[in-house]
Amino acid sequence: MCSLKLVIYIRCCIVMLLCTLPLRAAANGADADNTPATQCGTKKGCCCQMAEQEFVRTDGGKFYIGKEEYRFIGTNFWYGAILGSTGKGGNRERLKAELDDMLALGIDNVRILVGGDGRDSIPSHIAPKLQTAPGVYDEQLLEGLDYIIAELEKRGMRAVLYMNNAWEWSGGYGAYLDWVGFSAEVDSSDGKGKKFFKQTPVPSIDGWWEYMQYVGNFMLNDEAKALAAQHVRNIVSRVSSVTGRAYKDSPAIMAWEIANEPRCFVNDELHRRKFVEWIDEQSRLIKAIDPNHLVTTGSEGVHGCEESVELFQAIHRLPCIDYVCIHIWPNNWGWIGKFNQNYDAEKTIAEGAPDPIVDNVGAACDSTMRYIRQAIEAVNTTYRDKDGVTRDGKRPIVIEEFGYPRDRFLFTAGSPTKGRDAYYKTLFAAIEDGTVAGCNFWGWGGRAKVSHTIWQRWDDYVCDPAQEEQGLNSVFAADTTTLDIIRQSVERMRCRMRQE
User: I need a labelling partner for 267 at 20 to 30 A (CA). Which of 73, 226, 348, 488 fits?
Assistant: First the structure.
């Protein structure tokens, strides 16, 4: 019996060693001829070079590349296309270094914003904007998108590209309403009657309630939706200026995403119906142009569907939606305490005082797992479609956004992340054991140097968008304990997949 245990122990050690070699090889950087190491520990052009037509596909509740299951621990990198440009905000050397750093950790999946929309100089908006008027683009930013896709192809990495936004920080719904000259009167959040807006309200100035009521009109405005559809046509049909390859033929694109956190915002039958119709129309449009790549919604889950399981099911059972996505925000959703979402220096917790970010992480993890189980139970069921045909609802689930603050609500790179590290371990375990098919933590700050607590133009980009504290949810190169957890989780995930 003892000898048998010894044999099993030795075999397990060998498997672990073989599984970790790729990541350790990548972590060693470049070889003698300066060719960057890939995740398979060899030069570009070996097993990590993307073959033609090597697209991600789904089968039941899993992703596949060829015959191999694809499971991933990835990150959000919304500003990647801006870094890839040669204009304002561009930094191609940083972009390549960040991608290499990710790959050394085993991160091979990034979620990227195609680009911002709308008028310039709006407080809390990103800059520069890709689409400055309907169908009018900053060519340097389009080339930046081409560039990052080409760099991902070189590294065998995958991207999820989202093309719209329900929230104000990149334009999205509000930009399209502004472009068609929409104006509206909405209820005041202070209960003192109505407020009239000629343009989209800015949440940090005019109020979140006012903003959400106003942009809820996007679902009812056919002109605004038509402009958004044309943007989809323009982007999905694009041919890269870097590689000469059509986007629809790029293996670096895992999926197109309709919007970041799409919502109907107004919880009545009309808005819910129009919301489902819009997701259906957009997904069919994308598939008509590009049948090679996956399409998903960008939804937060039930929380982003007016707390309706039925609405969440409806948008993810559409015929051109390939997989389910959810987002999880314990701080924003009140799972760890009450912190408002606008900058407030008083949120920082005094040293030595009780820290709910650390003390309540267990409760946050419990709430998180309940939310994941709710999504799994909602979609992993058979159902009857509108024609009465029984369908299997099982599709892969990706937690494509989740974030957790630093201890004491600090924002400085390298500051303690005991609470975050514990939370990440819980989330990553759900990927390791196959409970869900993948995740993208929010988000990658990498080598950025933060200059201001609230982003000012041409500061280094981090993953916290312009309306949030810079460093709030970003993972920096200085956050060594978190990076170690990411690396170790990827190693365990890949080892487990080899054994399955």
Answer: 226
